[in-house]
Amino acid sequence: MSEQQTNHESPEQNVVHDNIDHSDSILEETMKEFNPKNNSGDEMVIDNEIDLDTFKTRIAELEGEVKQAKEGTARANAEAYNAQKRMEQEADKSKKFALQKFAKELLEIVDNLERAMENADANDPVTEGVQLTHKALLAVLNKNGVEAVDPQGGKFNADLHEAVGIDADAEADTVGTVLQKGYSLNGRLLRPAMVRVGQ
Predict the structure, then answer these.
(1) Three-state SS for 125?
(2) N or C: which end of the chain has fewer CB within 10 A?
């Protein structure tokens, strides 16, 4: 029985050895074939019909498409940036001038307080209360960007002043009498000053 097993194992071992030897020889042949030292390049191993001009043309087309895509993206980014800046400016303007109508109505109260102070008795205790109220109101207006435009003695400016008469004592084109002070809101004219101008 041991002899049979020995005889039976011998052929399998020979076959395995044959396969290993054969595999080694194929591997060696393959390595020799693709070894740069053994392949001078004189013989073409694989024939091909690749047209390089076709690939170059396609590459140029793709590069053009990439360039156009980049330019389109840059334009879109620039437009988005500009739109954002415009929106920020509009929001800033809206915030600055949201109080325009309300502030203009408060100016009538300022005018009335000033008239009351001009005609009040200095010794009257009510006058002091009016003065304090006037001062507090102007402080609130100033805090919110409202400033007085008092052109007394300055050059007449049609953008800031409204001429309502002639002042014979004033020099030509010079504001003589200010009948009503003007006011601006954050640099924008809220109400022009009513003045008399010299001729």
Answers:
(1) helix
(2) N
